[in-house]
């Protein structure tokens, strides 16, 4: 939790001391000392005891004066002392008890006791002793006598609960028997179930006896008192039971003993004053024992707080300081008041309050330690990432080289026969044939170039434009002119076709040319490729069909049909797909896909 939030719940008296004028450090500390120290509390308790004894002495003096002038003043002074002490106790309850429901019930009890003392004063000072009003004032004693124990019992469920806690509504039914008992007392003149007057109602002051109703009221008060004290002891959150926590039990036992003695006429005393005193003493003992939480011991609480806090006046002089608060010089406090200051993992913060400032320390050493650890881990991961990137770059380079080598090996494998022919031709050194040999090498070289190009293109896609086949044939025809062969190409190409089909058509043409090149005089090529996926390639050349190796026909790709006819010239027809065959539904692979065009390609030699 933020330290500033904890400051906001400082005891009421501390905040009042801070807001009570700008009298400087001495005035603020003086106000706190007037409210907090145990010595001050003992002085107040001693003063209250002395006043109670004085009131008792005044009663003793009054009993011997028999309605004299001084008797009236003595009675008035005694009643004023009793009511004044009770009002002072209620004021202390207002400031000491934080929990609103508990405070309201205690103030209600104080109000009942005040009513009791007022009725008692009216009985003895305003009405004649044998009058009806005097008697009903006496009966009215039992209104607070019945309600005070009930209010104490209603208070008990709120102990240890939040202010929003609401007990069950069934508890309100207890007010019904309380009202019934009060009504029974106020109507005693009719039935005399509470008090019986043997000498008649007129002489009620001289002689009366207790009846069954009185003992019911006595049991009511005693049982509610036991429920209140035992319930507080059971709800006590103090981990170690201390001897003084049983003080409320002793007070309750003493109250019961005095009541029994009064009923038996063993002692004659002012029952109203004594009962009010016992009620206040019982509640006060519960507060002092910690059974009822109170807003007290502020200075000790502030000093023992785990929050490092200092409270200063407007001149930055320290007024209050918690036990673990750091020490800052006045100049440093002025700097912190202008803005938070970080020192070695600690942040010194400040906030303005009434007539002063509050300084607190936030410990960020753990966060700084974790930050350094994260930075170190980040550096380690950065180095590991750099190493991984280097490894990936090296692997990528190796794969690139391997792929190049694979392509080179595949190209070399596909055109190995042509490369062998070129090598053999280069070894021929006959005079007069060099020009012809070089021309033949150019024809084969054009095939090697174009065949390699088709192979490389087919690495990325299984389908190639038919225009690629046209370009291959035109370059081959251009190089045939070097060997004296006249060629012509009539081509109309569009659409895409399987790479294997185009390679097969080009290989068929090249195989026939290589076999018949020495006797070839003219060459006519006719190529048609349509958008509908039909390819027709016809070759017409001079030569003998028996010299052409036809074993490659069995190795043609699927649906490729080749036909050779020998007439005045050699006719070769390549058709895809075969006549009567249905075109397979095909999908062009994604560019860069892993589909190889030569999966069904047979190299024609």
Topology of helices and strands:
Elements lengths: L2 H5 L4 H8 L5 H11 L2 H26 L5 H28 L3 H26 L6 H9 L1 H14 L19 H12 L1 H4 L3 E2 L12 E2 L1 H24 L11 H17 L7 H18 L9 H7 L4 E4 L5 E4 L8 H9 L2 E3 L2 E8 L2 E8 L1 H50 L1 H12 L6 H24 L5 E3 H15 L5 E8 L2 E3 H18 L5 E8 L5 E7 L19 E6 L3 E7 L29
Parallel strand pairs: 9-11
Antiparallel strand pairs: 1-2, 3-4, 3-7, 5-6, 6-7, 8-10, 11-12, 12-14, 13-14
Helix pairs in contact: 2-3, 4-5, 5-6, 6-7, 6-8, 6-13, 8-9, 8-11, 11-12, 12-13, 17-18, 18-19, 18-20, 19-20
Shape: rod-shaped
| Portion in beta strands | 5-15%
Unreliable stretches covering 5 or more consecutive residues: 1-36, 583-605
Task: Kindly provide the radius of gyration, computed on alpha-carbon positions and rounded to a whole number of angstroms.
Answer: 58 Å
Structural class: alpha+beta
In DSSP terms (H or I, runs of 4 or more residues), the helix count works out at 20
In this structure, how is the largest beta sheet organized? 5 strands, antiparallel
Biggest sheet, strands in spatial order? Answer: 4-3-7-6-5
Distance between the termini: 88 Å
Percentage of residues assigned to helices: 55-70%
The residue-averaged pLDDT reads: 78
What's the count of strands?
14
């Amino acid at each position: 939790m933020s330290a500033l939030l904890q400051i906001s719940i400082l005891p009421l008296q501390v905040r009042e001391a801070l807001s009570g004028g700008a009298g400087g450090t001495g005035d603020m500390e003086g106000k706190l000392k007037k409210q907090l120290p145990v010595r001050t509390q003992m002085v107040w308790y001693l003063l209250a005891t002395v006043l109670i004894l004085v009131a008792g002495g005044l009663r003793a003096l009054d009993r011997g004066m028999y309605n004299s002038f001084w008797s009236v003043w003595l009675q008035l002074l005694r009643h004023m002392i009793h009511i004044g002490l009770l009002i002072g106790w209620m004021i202390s309850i207002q400031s000491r008890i934080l929990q609103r429901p508990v405070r309201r019930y205690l103030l209600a009890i104080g109000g009942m006791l005040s009513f009791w003392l007022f009725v008692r004063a009216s009985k003895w000072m305003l009405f004649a002793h044998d009058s009806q009003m005097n008697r009903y004032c006496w009966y009215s004693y039992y209104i607070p006598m019945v309600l005070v124990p009930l209010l104490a019992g209603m208070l008990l469920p709120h102990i240890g609960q939040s202010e929003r806690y609401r007990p069950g509504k069934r508890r309100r039914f207890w007010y019904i028997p309380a009202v019934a008992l009060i009504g029974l007392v106020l109507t005693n003149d009719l039935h005399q179930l509470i008090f019986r007057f043997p000498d008649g109602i007129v002489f009620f002051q001289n002689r009366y006896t207790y009846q069954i109703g009185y003992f019911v009221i006595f049991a009511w008060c005693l049982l509610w008192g036991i429920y209140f004290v035992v319930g507080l002891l059971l709800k006590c959150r103090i981990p170690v039971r201390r001897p003084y926590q049983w003080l409320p039990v002793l007070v309750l036992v003493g109250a019961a003993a005095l009541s029994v003695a009064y009923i038996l006429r063993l002692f004659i005393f002012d029952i109203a004053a004594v009962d009010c005193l016992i009620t206040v003493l019982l509640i006060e003992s519960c507060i002092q024992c910690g059974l009822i939480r109170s807003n007290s011991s502020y200075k000790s609480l502030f000093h023992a707080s785990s929050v490092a806090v200092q409270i200063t006046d407007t001149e930055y002089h320290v007024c209050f300081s918690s036990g673990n608060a750091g020490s800052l010089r006045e100049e440093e406090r002025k700097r912190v008041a202008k803005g938070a200051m970080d020192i070695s993992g600690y942040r010194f913060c400040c906030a303005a309050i009434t007539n002063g400032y509050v300084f607190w320390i936030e410990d960020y050493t753990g966060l700084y330690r974790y930050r350094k650890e994260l930075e170190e881990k980040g550096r380690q991961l950065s180095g590991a990432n750099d190493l991984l990137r280097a490894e990936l770059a090296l692997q990528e380079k190796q794969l690139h080289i391997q792929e190049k080598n694979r392509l080179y090996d595949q190209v070399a494998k596909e055109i190995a026969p042509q490369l062998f022919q070129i090598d053999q031709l280069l070894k021929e050194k006959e005079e007069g044939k060099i020009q012809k040999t070089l021309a033949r090498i150019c024809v084969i070289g054009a095939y090697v170039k174009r065949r390699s190009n088709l192979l490389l293109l087919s690495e990325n896609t299984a389908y190639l434009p038919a225009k690629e086949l046209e370009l291959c044939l035109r370059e081959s025809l251009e190089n045939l002119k070097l060997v004296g062969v006249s060629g012509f190409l009539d081509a109309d190409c569009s659409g895409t076709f399987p790479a294997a089909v185009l390679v097969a058509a080009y290989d068929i043409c090249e195989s026939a040319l290589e076999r018949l090149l020495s006797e070839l005089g003219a060459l006519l090529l006719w190529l048609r490729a349509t958008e509908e996926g039909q390819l027709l390639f016809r070759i017409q050349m001079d030569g003998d069909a028996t010299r052409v190796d036809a074993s490659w026909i069995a190795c043609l790709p699927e649906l490729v049909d080749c036909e050779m006819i020998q007439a005045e010239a050699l006719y070769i027809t390549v058709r895809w797909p075969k006549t009567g065959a249905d075109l397979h539904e095909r999908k062009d692979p994604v560019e860069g896909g892993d589909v190889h065009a030569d999966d069904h390609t047979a190299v024609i030699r």
